């Protein structure tokens, strides 16, 4: 029996992930399925809850974030069956019919839950809501959604001039607006479109760059009238549609696949096939970035399932080259930047990630945290105000790391540890449950089903 490469131990309420790769001979092989897309899972639950009739969701992500969304929706009268990946059944309440909850809505760690939900709640006239979450969520900026909603006539109060949760919302009849968002954020766009559902007339959002378009696709499938102008980067929704329950098939999350893509690239002689991955063009920035870095990835079995493109991704190890990543590509790979930083450590030459200041207000300050954790391992990585600069070609050594309550930091550090010399310990690794509850099992599966 070879020594275990992956161990997970409990330390109080936390979990410590210990990764001890062999000095040589580790290769990653096999096929992997990944959990459902987080963004699509949130939306399927929310839109199912406000539609009329029954919605069925297959492949829902069973992570903590969608659980927070389901929990809030149940507190407002939506009937949602027990969450499982086979099929979740929702009996929707119909547009405008969410009930006033008797307690504070708890969005946990989930920015998507609170920001999208605000758009829904603000339009529920004569009902009062309070929404909050964990310490990380209570420090994340909410003025980006409070501002357009207030323009629509919403009444919202919160800490620090209505910019931080807990937030209190007095539902009002809203008016349609055209909103020029200063940031390319799907959460802001979706919030305004959801508020527009209940406004009289057309609500338009114009973005500086295209962000993920799952809301538009799915709202249209539920019966909303949506028009998009990709040139102008604008999306318009007509108020007061009849939304009807649908069957949603959630594809695998490309943001979760990204960890295995990079793992297979950096661990020599590896080949992985990641099955059933959502490849919506507003999410495939990671494939473009890795292609620029000369990675060997092929897209196989491409098909459209329930309105979203899906494929298997075959990835083989190889030598990466440094690249510059910025501009309009950033919103299309925003959640993958921590793992791109790991890839860049093993690339030849310099990688610059810019235009990504948004990373500072995610579940953690991902610029500062990735720079500090990867530096501890010996990487040549420095912070920029809007990104990271990484000089590749170095070697990593195992050490003790912190996940800072951030699922993507925990998983990125774990992948870096596969290529480090010696043992790495990641404290707070339970954070992976936010978006990838089976992460440790998948990691074991690809590392330990082989002769070493
Ligand atoms: C999300 C949008 C992104 C992303 C987040 C999920 C969504 O945030 O980082 O993990 O589901 O709409 P922003 O829209 O704020 O960039």
From TrEMBL:
Entry-linked PROSITE patterns: EPSP_SYNTHASE_1, EPSP_SYNTHASE_2
Positions annotated as active site in the UniProt record: 335
Binding site for 3-phosphoshikimate: 38-39, 43, 185, 187, 335, 362
Alphabetical list of Pfam families matching this protein: EPSP_synthase (PF00275)
One term under GO cellular component: cytoplasm
Binding site for phosphoenolpyruvate: 38, 111, 140, 187, 366, 408
Subcellular locations according to the entry: Cytoplasm
Record flagged with keyword Transferase: yes
EC nos: 2.5.1.19
GO biological process, one term: chorismate biosynthetic process
Domain of life (superkingdom): Bacteria
Pathway(s) of this molecule: Metabolic intermediate biosynthesis; chorismate biosynthesis; chorismate from D-erythrose 4-phosphate and phosphoenolpyruvate: step 6/7
Key word ATP-binding present: no
NCBIfam families tied to this protein: aroA
Function, as annotated: Catalyzes the transfer of the enolpyruvyl moiety of phosphoenolpyruvate (PEP) to the 5-hydroxyl of shikimate-3-phosphate (S3P) to produce enolpyruvyl shikimate-3-phosphate and inorganic phosphate.
PANTHER family: AROM/DEHYDROQUINATE SYNTHASE, PENTAFUNCTIONAL AROM POLYPEPTIDE
Subunit structure and binding partners: Monomer.
Protein family: Belongs to the EPSP synthase family.
UniProt protein name: 3-phosphoshikimate 1-carboxyvinyltransferase
């Amino acid at each position: 029996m070879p020594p275990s490469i992956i161990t997970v131990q409990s330390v109080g309420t936390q979990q410590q992930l210990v990764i001890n790769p062999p000095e040589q001979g580790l290769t990653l092989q096999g096929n992997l399925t990944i959990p459902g897309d987080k963004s699509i899972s949130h939306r399927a639950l929310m839109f199912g809850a406000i539609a009329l009739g029954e919605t069925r969701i297959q492949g829902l992500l069973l992570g903590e974030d969608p659980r927070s969304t389901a929990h809030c929706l149940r507190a407002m009268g939506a009937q949602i069956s027990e969450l499982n990946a086979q099929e979740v059944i929702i009996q929707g309440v119909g547009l405008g019919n969410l009930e006033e909850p008797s307690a504070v809505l708890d969005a946990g760690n989930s920015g998507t839950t609170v920001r999208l939900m605000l758009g829904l709640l603000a339009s529920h006239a004569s009902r009062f809501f309070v929404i909050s979450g964990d310490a990380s969520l209570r420090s994340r900026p909410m003025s980006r959604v409070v501002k357009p909603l207030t323009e629509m006539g919403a009444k919202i109060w919160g800490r620090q001039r209505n910019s931080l949760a807990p937030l209190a919302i007095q539902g009002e009849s809203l008016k349609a607006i055209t909103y020029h968002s200063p940031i390319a954020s799907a959460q802001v766009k979706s919030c305004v479109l959801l508020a527009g559902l209940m406004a009289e007339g057309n609500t338009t959002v114009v973005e500086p760059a295209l962000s993920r378009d799952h809301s538009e696709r799915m709202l249209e499938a539920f019966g909303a009238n949506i028009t998009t102008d990709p040139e102008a980067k604008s999306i318009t929704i007509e108020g007061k549609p009849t939304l009807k329950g649908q069957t949603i098939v959630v594809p695998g999350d490309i943001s979760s696949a990204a960890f295995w893509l990079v793992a297979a690239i950096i661990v020599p002689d590896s080949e992985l096939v990641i099955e059933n991955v959502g490849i919506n063009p507003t999410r495939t920035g990671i494939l473009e970035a890795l292609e620029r870095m000369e990675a060997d990835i092929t897209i196989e079995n491409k098909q459209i399932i329930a309105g979203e493109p899906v494929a298997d991704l075959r990835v083989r190890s190889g030598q990466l080259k440094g690249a510059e990543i910025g501009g309009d590509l950033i919103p299309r790979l925003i959640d993958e930047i921590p793992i791109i930083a790991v890839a860049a450590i093993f690339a030849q030459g310099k990688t610059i990630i810019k235009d990504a200041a948004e990373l500072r207000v995610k579940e953690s300050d991902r610029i500062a945290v990735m720079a500090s954790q990867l530096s501890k391992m010996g990487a040549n990585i420095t912070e920029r105000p809007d990104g990271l600069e990484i000089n590749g070609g170095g070697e990593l050594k195992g050490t003790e790391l912190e996940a800072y309550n951030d699922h993507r930091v925990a998983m990125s550090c774990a992948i870096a540890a596969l290529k480090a010399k010696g043992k790495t310990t990641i404290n707070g690794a339970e954070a992976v449950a936010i978006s990838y509850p089976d992460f440790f099992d998948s990691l074991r599966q690809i590392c330990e089903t082989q002769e070493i």
